[in-house]
Amino acid sequence: MFPIRAASILLSVVFMVVLVQTPVIESYVASVKNHKSIQVFHYFDEENPLYERVKKEAAKYYIKPIDARVDRVWKAIPGLNGREVNIEETVRRTLRQKDQSKIVWVYREIPPKVSLSDLGPQPVYRGNERKKAVALMVNVAWGTEYIPDMLKILKEEKVKATFFLDGSWLEKNPDMARRIAVDGHEIGNHAYSHPLMSKISRNQMEREIGKTESLIERTLNTKSKWFAPPAGDFNRMVCEVAAKHQLQTVLWTVDTVDWRKSVSPGMMVTKVKRELGPGHLLLTHPTDRTVKALRQILREGKRKGLKWTTVGEVLSSNRAD
């Protein structure tokens, strides 16, 4: 009885093996022989021709990182990450393509040795001059009625800006401030009562910056990283007090001067055409003239090949490309 059952089982196994090997196994073997993805098992092999080609050509795509520095005119200038080819990922993605003669280059960024934070409590007027990104700064102490239209245009143009909020304004307009934050815009500190910061005592500086920072955290559940002194007025002590609150003092590169009624929307756009460049910070306020000029300003920046983003992103060492 036992030999008969054993023979039956053996016969079944042989039958299954034969069944599996024809045509499924033959099809699989053929596909493995002909399919280029078989190279995936070897793309880290230094003798692989593609690996050798990528490794050889990678040097020409290398970009050295730039350290942050203190400029005589522009004060603190952020560094910029370098770039190198990620050889393994480049080979991997290239092997996934039908046409493997065209390399799919994949990069990784190399941080600079000196960052903006290493420079101490210095004012910042601009991002790195080699970074093709710009930021729209909106200092808010008045002009609440114009903010909804600005937000609408920014959303339609897919641009995130940085709104520096005056503390007394924030206290009176918490819902509008929340609307700004909900739209994904960056929030900055613009003191509490819009004073000339260099004209007040250190204790007053502490209150102006600290009170507004507490309001921002309590109202918007976020913490700002940037302090924009009202009217651009500051001294060394202002930078030190801001740094104590973990804020970097930020000025601007290009001023639209939109608070002057004599400045027309056309004049604002012309100034942007003439002066806006890589790494620049563009200062605006919520005014009727700004609303009329804003869309054209944003499109002019895009036409120049510049990416509109937040102050935080422009002043970071991240590459814009």
Give structural notes:
The chain is of the alpha/beta class. It has eleven helices and twelve strands. Strands 5, 6, 7, 10, 11 and 12 form a six-stranded parallel beta sheet that branches. Helix 9 links the parallel strand 10 (254-255) and strand 11 (281-284). Helix 2 packs across helix 3, helix 4 runs parallel beside helix 10 and helix 9 runs parallel beside helix 10. The longest helix is centred in the first third of the chain and has 33 residues, at 2-34. The radius of gyration is 29 Å and the shape is globular.
Tell me the β content: 5-15%
Sheet having the most strands: 6 strands, parallel
Structural class based on helices, strands and sheet pairing: alpha/beta
Binned, the helix content reads 40-55%
Oligomer: single chain
* Radius of gyration over all CA atoms, rounded: 29 Å
Q: How would the global form be characterised?
A: globular
Give the tags:
321 residues; single chain; alpha/beta; two-stranded antiparallel sheet
Question: What is the structure about, briefly put?
Answer:
The protein is an alpha/beta fold and 321 residues long. It is built from eleven helices and twelve strands.
What is the element layout, followed by pairings?
Elements: H1 2-34, H2 49-57, E1 69-71, E2 75-77, E3 82-85, H3 87-95, E4 107-110, E5 133-140, H4 147-156, E6 162-165, H5 167-172, H6 174-182, E7 186-189, H7 202-220, E8 226-227, H8 236-244, E9 248-249, E10 254-255, H9 265-275, E11 281-284, H10 288-303, E12 307-309, H11 311-314
Parallel strand pairs: 5-6, 5-11, 5-12, 6-7, 8-9, 10-11
Antiparallel strand pairs: 1-2, 3-4
Helix pairs in contact: 2-3, 4-10, 7-8, 9-10
